[in-house]
Fold this sequence. Notes:
Number of strands: 10
CATH class: Alpha Beta
Bound molecules: 3,5,7,3',4'-pentahydroxyflavone
Number of domains: 1
Strand content: 5-15%
CATH superfamily: 2-enoyl-CoA Hydratase, Chain A, domain 1
Oligomer: single chain
Mean pLDDT: 94
Largest sheet: 6 strands, mixed
Low-confidence stretches: 1-22
Helix content: 40-55%
Distance between the termini: 34 Å
CATH topology: 2-enoyl-CoA Hydratase, Chain A, domain 1
Strand order of the largest sheet: 1-2-3-5-7-10
Amino acid sequence: MILLPTRIKLWSKLTNCKRCFSTGMDDVLFEEKNNVGIITLNRQKALNALNESMVKKIIPKLKEYESKVRMVIVQGAGEKSFCAGGDVKFITENGPTAVSLDRGSKFFKQEYSMNSMIGNYKIPYISLIDGITMGGGVGISVHGKYRIATEKTLFAMPETAIGLFCDVGASHVLSRMEKHLGVMLGLTGYRLKGTDVVKSGIATHYVNSSKIESLKMKLIEDMRNPEIILNENTEDLSDIKFSLDPYLEKIDFIFSIENVEKMFETLEKDNSDWAQKILQILKEVSPMSLKITRKEISNGKNFNLNECLIMEHRLAYRCMEAKYSTDFYEGVRALLIDKDKSPKWSPASLKEIKDEIVSKYFEPLPKDLDLKFV
Ligand code: QUE
């Protein structure tokens, strides 16, 4: 049971509005200033993680803004986080049942439709990713035209750790990164910080966090093309090195191997500290997630964003359906609910997972279940 402060309980009772409370009235804020739409993700206690209530409000606003304002700016409330992910606990709380499948499929369809809208947006879409930007937070920013990072930006696609796979259109983005860096980020959940987020191509511009408010005001007040304003008011990073530079050739060599077992064997033969650290991470995440994610990123290279999202929705459906693996439920339990950080993966090893089973995840769903964009 959720314990609510007495005042809120009373308020809920008085207004007979349990629904209003539980769906969060102000979980996302919308403002218009000088013909700019400003979206603020406003669920600080959950690190602004996206839930269905937020996505359902954002979709119609994005549609409205596209023909009404000059550009859209997206930000996270508070100091710590832009957006830490999606509300996956809500999906799994009933276990692998029809309820979870129905809830999850509805949520993912909405979220992926939003990701598609952002990727195909007609006006500039600018995300101020000044803090934690993971999972769903990547999906609501990375497909837009401009992403502004700061020293507080912490990027990751950590889904293999919860028995899921890199969704929200990540197969489009990760598959297009240089030197198979995206494969490394997707399989390991490796975190990129600050200037590295720009150096990798995930962000387009960089400022110190103390300047983010004044940059936002300039974007709103100055009527010139936002690209000019961004270029004038962000840092030149040409003299800054990418922290992964010394490893890029190795990353390219290892993560170009599409067979996950062969990739493990190659890492095992490499005695460098870096390779052993990566191997350790890969041994802890879900083996099923690794195989799905690797294939997903290979496929994504030849797909447009919408095709990637349709594929990802099929994968999400199969993870929730739990016919071949219950890892999604176990991962959420171990990392987000019980927090024992000791998931028991099933199948427990890569060799138990045949290619035919991996292929099943990618098969089209019955027509009425496949993703249709809202
Ligand atoms: C791996 C993940 C996620 C994660 C942690 C991981 C993920 C996700 C969240 C998350 C964070 C804050 C919240 C929330 C969920 O954490 O996908 O509801 O408030 O959404 O190690 O994949």
